[in-house]
Specification:
Helix 5 runs parallel beside helix 6 and helix 7 packs across helix 9. This protein is an alpha/beta fold. It has a five-stranded parallel beta sheet, with helices on both faces. It has a two-stranded antiparallel sheet with strand order 1-2. The protein has a single domain, classed as 3-Layer(aba) Sandwich (Rossmann fold). 44% of the residues lie in helices and 15% in strands.
């Protein structure tokens, strides 16, 4: 029996709980930490939706605020208090593109802080690699480098969504991965990120569990486009 996803807005922080219950697995608890690149299109809910199709139970909470960096989250202290409850299997964290020199210093510093805290509380940090705005598309390789270095230095998992975007565009340059503001992800962009993150967290060798079913995004992503997204996600996961 499947339980619906519950979403609750609290004045102190953005909190969401996603439930997907089957008889085949124990719950996997995920904490999402980041900004609008995660909460636009409700990326955590998309990942929970993928989990349901894969007969996996996902329970999640989120701390997501506009324009927040990992430094901002760390200085507030609320995320640390949540991690210290010891309730999470994974903490999925992101900030902005972080391609500029200053950001390339701060990203590994705070990734390492969160990774050490996760390790002390029986959790694993997974760094969610994002992408630059369309106007700074020339910076994509620097974004990939920044997140890769931060993950390697902190021994964190790396969810290469930004790299998956690159591969997807190589396969089809017309894919609408951005919204009209040319920075935030479209539904297509968020689904690609969700596929990549889910594949890394659950160590998927393929995405064959995705069948023609009633996804919330089925009207926006035709079957042919989904096939391209799956291949791009898998290629990024195997990098």
């Amino acid at each position: 029996m499947l339980k619906r996803i519950l979403a609750v807005w609290l004045p102190v922080f953005f909190l969401q709980n996603g439930f997907a219950q089957t008889a085949h697995s124990d719950p996997v608890r995920i904490l999402f930490v980041g900004n609008s690149l995660t909460y636009v299109n409700d990326l955590p809910a998309l990942i929970a939706e993928l989990a349901r199709q894969d007969k996996t139970i996902v329970i999640y909470n989120s701390f997501l605020f506009p324009d927040y960096s990992l430094e901002d989250h760390w200085k507030e202290g609320k995320v640390q208090a949540e991690i210290e409850k010891g309730s999470y299997d994974f903490v999925v964290a992101q900030q902005g593109p972080s391609a500029l020199p200053g950001s390339q210093v701060l990203l590994p510093d705070y990734t390492n802080k969160f990774a050490e805290l996760c390790n002390k509380n029986n959790s694993k940090l997974a760094l969610y690699m994002v992408w630059p705005s369309r106007a700074r598309s020339f910076d994509l390789d620097n974004v990939i480098k920044a997140y890769t270095n931060a993950a390697e230095k902190s021994s964190s998992l790396l969810c290469r969504a930004g790299l998956a975007w690159k591969y997807a565009w190589q396969a089809d340059s017309t894919l609408p991965l951005y919204t009209s503001d040319n920075f935030h992800p479209s539904v297509t962009g968020s689904v690609l990120a969700a596929l990549t993150i889910y594949g890394v967290l659950f160590n998927k060798k393929d995405l064959d569990f995705l069948k023609p079913v009633t996804y919330s995004w089925k009207n926006e992503i035709p079957k042919e486009r989904l096939a391209t997204l799956k291949q791009a996600a898998l290629k990024a996961m195997r990098k």
